[in-house]
Each structure stands twice: as structure tokens, then as C-alpha cells.
Amino acid sequence: MCKYSPWGVSVTKDFPMSGEEREDDEADFDSWLFHFVSMGNETTNYYNCYHPANFQTRSLTSKQKYVHGGRGGFDPNITLAMNTYNNLDFVALVEFVHESQCMLYYRLGDKAPPAAISYLNKSCHCEKKRGDKAHKENGKDHVHIQHHNMGKRSNLRDLPPATLSNVANLTSADSFIYVNALKHFMVEMAWLESDNALGRRVVCDDVLKKWEPELAYLEAGRFNQGRFNVTQIYRDAVKKHKNKM
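Now predict its structure.
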């Protein structure tokens, strides 16, 4: 966002921009990460863009509308962040946008508009395999949005270990919040799929398999113990819900 988006290009100051090739982006990304890791809680020099340290956690705890500056990024109040999260009525996950829609539309109940009811009936099931990039609902494609045309990689898993370590250092609290949010999301989906609600699968095996390698990095977080497997988290939630019935 800071390097390529029109907004980022117009506002950033002294941002790492060695070039536009893939190797340039990797070098710039590494420089960007190291800059924030090395400066710790100092918040004045964030390239006039945003400070990445635990951005989500700071958003959940700050009284300010914008948290770009990074105040408290390395020691955010995780308890307050979790309390804020727990007080939210509905939280969608970007990795499970479709499934989040299904949950929201079902919870709307009688207040759901016709388009939402149609989406529930036609799209919220696993009988038909959806494509990786899009699935059709009422003749419309739901696609991933790329915010600029300079993207060169679909994942960050093959970056050097030192780079990934810096990412982990800057997002340790965010990882903790996300892991808890994901587990809670799967509990909600287990209920949605039960006979008490839709009575059919919504979180499909192919989707879970897709996200397994993408989310496995969370096992390295200092707040998480053991191997992280999103499919197992889903299965555990379903099993626990069935045992309650």
C-alpha cells in the first residue's frame, strides 16, 4: 500500500523504493520491516504512511480514529483488545469472506433482504465446488480485489527466515488476537452448520485445505503453542458442538 498505491506514493517520505522488480520488492520489504523492528516504540518516523507493529491490536484498543503512528505497537494491551473484540456482535474474517456472509445473512433472519436469502440458498453449501479465485452467485462473480497492478507474489511463505522473523516480531499480539478470533469463528460456523441452523456444510474442505499452508505460520507466534492447522481447528469446533447436543 505504501509503495505502490496512489495514496501511498503521494504521502510517503523516504520510503524504501529500490525498484519495481520482484527482488526489489523483497529487498524493500525487508528494509521496511527492519526499520520498524529496530526503532522499537519510537513512533515518529513511519514514512508518513503507517506503523505496522500490531496494527489490528492497536485499532482495538485506541481511542483515536486513526492509529497509523504506532503508539504502543510493541506492548499493546492485549486484554483490552480481546475485551473489545468480544464485545463486537459480528466479526468477519478476510480468509473466509464467503462463509462470513453466510453467517451474517442467516443471523439477519426475517430482516434479511431477498438477495441475502437467495445467497444463503444458492451459495452457502459445499455440494458444488467453487473455483479458487471466484464463485458465482446469481450470475455475479465474487473475486479477490488487488489494490494495485504491481503485485508479484501470491504468498509470503518463501521469504527468507529473517524476514519472516521480523514479520512475527511486529505482529505477535495481532497473531494472538487473530488465532482467538479464528477459533471463535469456527465455533460459530459449527453452530451454523448444525441441525439447529442451516443443517449443512458451509466451510468446505477445499477452502480449509487452501488456507492450511497460508495460516501455518501462526504456529511460530510466541502466544501459540504447537502446530497450527485451520482444518483441525474447524474439526475440533464441530466435534465440541456435537458433544454439547
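Residues 130-148, 221-225 have pLDDT under 50 and may be disordered.
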